[in-house]
């Protein structure tokens, strides 16, 4: 049997760990040895509780990088801010990953937004596979695409930052006698890239290529879907209290008479509610999405990839409040589908009441979401996990 080491290095939230969990389970069921190397061992503990899979701390960048533009224009600039600006600093991170792999002796390194894990694997001659949505899996054989396509092109800046990224990475590889990288995308794609999305939800708008394996969907939470009593339209909201627009959209929903089931992690943790109304029920724990999505007519979120995919698979339109490049690109894709509104792409002052009314009253939004659900009605997350396991086994056979 083979040893698979599943790695997460960059990015926040539990989606990365949830994806790796869904991959680990079928591999272990087939008798393989599985281990985790994760960015966060605290927030993931409950998610992974009871799996009895060895879990180690990932080597991650802990320092502030000065001198970079405030708005990151490409994945290269994201990586430069995470240790890739300086080859000597990157060498330290790479040594940490190399030591983990030398101790664990994996047959395959599986990376979810873990470029330095793939870099270390390359330096050791280990095969590396990458999984993830479009954002962390840029087009192969091309320069890293811009993340802020709504702004004026900056080709010189994009070329310069990717060249700096490659210089750091290739300096580290050269020190270990490993072959250099030709493009920045190779840092994120590894030897075996597996794109876990569909063309409609690809952050970079690719239409060809593939294979398109569909999104990795986390196992449903156990929290009940409890709606305020009354006759108003049901809306499910998954928002962050610290985002000012969250209170604005909740206020618009209340004015519309909607009954809102809202999960806000910080409110669930004891923070004051941003809008106090009998029409809003704030869940005290993560809500079971199948019940919430079946029972609602509209979803409000910050355009995280997993929730967007699940809402569309349930045929529900979305009102989206993205606050990062990744989620903004996702919101643009949903808006292009006609299945939602990207509120942050609209000029200020934003008419929240008009957006809520449009999504609830104009059938075109629900029809576009229903059409998406129909196109992917045969998607089975459990089957997808088995397909991924088949592919990983093929990489080590």
Helices and strands in order:
Blueprint: E1 3-8, H1 15-29, E2 33-38, H2 45-48, E3 55-57, H3 75-84, H4 87-104, E4 108-112, H5 115-124, E5 128-132, H6 155-175, H7 185-189, E6 192-195, E7 234-238, H8 244-255, E8 259-263, H9 265-268, E9 280-282, H10 289-295, E10 298-301, H11 305-313, E11 318-320, H12 325-337, E12 340-342, H13 352-361, H14 363-375, H15 381-396
Parallel strand pairs: 1-2, 1-4, 2-3, 4-5, 5-6, 7-8, 7-10, 8-9, 10-11, 11-12
Give me the strand/helix succession.
EHEHEHHEHEHHEEHEHEHEHEHEHHH
CATH names the topology of the largest domain as: Rossmann fold
CATH architecture call of the largest domain: 3-Layer(aba) Sandwich
Query: What is the class of the largest domain in the CATH system?
Result: Alpha Beta
Helix content: 40-55%
Largest sheet: 6 strands, parallel
CATH superfamily of the largest domain: Glycogen Phosphorylase B
Q: DSSP helix count?
A: 15
Going across the major beta sheet, what is the strand order? 3-2-1-4-5-6
Quantity of strands, as a count: 12
Report the uncertain regions.
none
Mean pLDDT: 94
Strand content: 5-15%
Q: Report how far the terminal alpha carbons are from each other.
A: 10 Å
| Global Rg | 21 Å
The secondary-structure class comes to: alpha/beta
Number of domains: 2
Short characterization:
This protein has 397 residues and is of the alpha/beta class. It is 42% helix and 13% strand. β8, α9 (265-268) and β9 form a beta-alpha-beta unit.
